[in-house]
Write a structure and sequence with these properties.
Elements: H1 2-13, H2 25-37, H3 48-77
Amino acid sequence: MRACLERGEEMLLRRQIATETALSQPLIKNAIKLAQHRGLLRGEEDLAAGRQAFAGEVQRAAAAVNTLQQHYDRGWAA
């Protein structure tokens, strides 16, 4: 968990993540549980394609959350 949060903080500093909302522990914990449920946390090499697909899925979900947060923030600023 700590490694995920540290990586997320680095991505936030590089502006690869737009808001801190994407760094919430519940969001990361749920992503880890989902990966576990899909069997993507085993150490087998044949999981690479599934892991890459899952990473893309998580990135798209995080981007959607960031977009919603930006719209929300703009609405409050108006």
